[in-house]
């Protein structure tokens, strides 16, 4: 009896499937558009490049207290300047949360068309970003995420976890035949989620080739901090095979400490992609053999997205007629073999 019921159930399912297939076929032949028509939903590259309605974009970021942030700010200004239909209203860079909130409040009161915001503290700027969104002003969040999905129309991020993965993978490729290799890590500010993400990616990538982090110190993204942390690391570890330093700005101090200690038995990988680091990689005359890109173009990308959104345009190379609400940029490895492809976008430490 059970087998008969099962058989009948299969017949019913088969019949429904057949009817559905006929319905789909009829729909395709009778009422659907052609493939060309179905994907031609958004604006084209030519339409995006063409001058549109003039839009005012407010931009606020932290103080440019090191090279990467300086490049972030200058990149935003340069991106806005290339569009004749963009007026940029830039606030003075600040690490004072209260001052940055006030800058965003000014943008809201001035009724700008869009806001690009690299917050000094993502959580602290979330409330005012939500206020802007509720006022109908799209917010493009850059680098440091807000704590609510309602605070931004689109978010542009570097890949911190991916940086760690790229660094660990490169070191695995160089030291894969040395299972007992000593791998050291010079992190940035340990309390920051971005540092924690970079370290997690690094650890995970190393584990894939049987390596781990043998020694680790943290610095503070400054030259002085990098030199102090590296000096401590080198003193405590007489033999090292590879070092990953999270940040090329602090890497100037790291390299100074290495030179002072007269150490050269290891390879070093940097992070962020400064021009100084790339020139050293190009010269190939130091322990620095690679760096991992953390794009300083994020705010420039934010300006470009803000213009598209404010003008009602779309990301032309995507089929979906919209602008993505989250973009995570790549974290490629730069070596002497490909440094020429990246050095023009590098920032000065």
From TrEMBL:
It comes from the Bacteria. Residues 1-35 form the signal peptide. Pfam families: Peripla_BP_4. PROSITE patterns: PROKAR_LIPOPROTEIN. GO terms for cellular component: cell envelope. Residues 57-313 form the Periplasmic binding protein domain. Keywords: Signal. Transmembrane segments: none annotated. The keyword Signal applies. It is found in: Cell envelope. The keyword Signal applies. InterPro entries: Peripla_BP_I (IPR028082), SBP_2_dom (IPR025997). GO terms for molecular function: carbohydrate binding. Its main location: other. Belongs to the bacterial solute-binding protein 2 family. This is Ribose import binding protein RbsB. It comes from Microbacterium lemovicicum. The gene is rbsB_1.
């Amino acid at each position: 009896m059970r087998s008969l019921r099962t058989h009948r159930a299969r017949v019913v399912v088969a019949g429904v499937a057949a009817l559905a297939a006929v319905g789909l076929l009829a729909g395709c032949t009778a009422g659907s558009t052609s493939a060309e028509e179905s994907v031609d939903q958004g604006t084209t590259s030519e339409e995006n490049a063409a001058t549109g309605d003039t839009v005012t974009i407010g931009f606020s970021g932290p103080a440019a207290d090191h090279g990467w942030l300086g490049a972030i700010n200058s990149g935003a200004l340069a991106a806005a300047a290339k569009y004749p239909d963009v007026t940029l209203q830039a606030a003075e860079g600040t690490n004072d949360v209260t001052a940055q909130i006030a800058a965003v409040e000014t943008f809201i009161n001035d009724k700008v068309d869009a806001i690009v915001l690299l917050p000094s503290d993502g959580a602290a700027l979330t409330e005012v970003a939500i206020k802007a969104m509720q006022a109908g002003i799209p917010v493009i969040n850059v680098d440091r995420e807000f704590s609510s999905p309602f605070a931004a129309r689109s978010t542009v991020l570097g890949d911190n976890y991916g940086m760690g993965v790229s660094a660990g993978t490169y070191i695995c490729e160089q030291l894969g035949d040395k299972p007992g290799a000593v791998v050291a890590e010079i992190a940035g500010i340990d309390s920051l989620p971005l540092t924690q993400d970079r370290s997690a990616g690094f650890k995970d990538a190393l584990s894939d080739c049987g390596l781990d982090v043998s020694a680790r110190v943290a610095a503070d993204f400054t030259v002085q901090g990098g030199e102090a942390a590296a000096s401590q690391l080198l003193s405590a570890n007489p033999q090292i095979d590879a070092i990953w330093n999270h940040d090329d700005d602090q890497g100037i101090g790291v390299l100074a400490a290495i030179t002072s200690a007269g150490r050269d038995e290891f390879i070093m990988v940097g992070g962020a992609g400064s021009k100084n680091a790339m020139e050293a990689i190009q010269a190939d005359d130091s322990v620095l053999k690679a760096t991992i890109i953390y794009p300083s173009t994020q705010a420039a990308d934010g300006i470009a997205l803000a213009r598209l959104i404010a003008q009602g345009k779309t990301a032309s190379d995507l089929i979906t007629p919209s602008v993505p609400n989250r973009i995570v940029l790549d974290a490629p490895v730069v070596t002497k073999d490909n440094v020429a492809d990246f050095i023009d976008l590098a920032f000065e430490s």
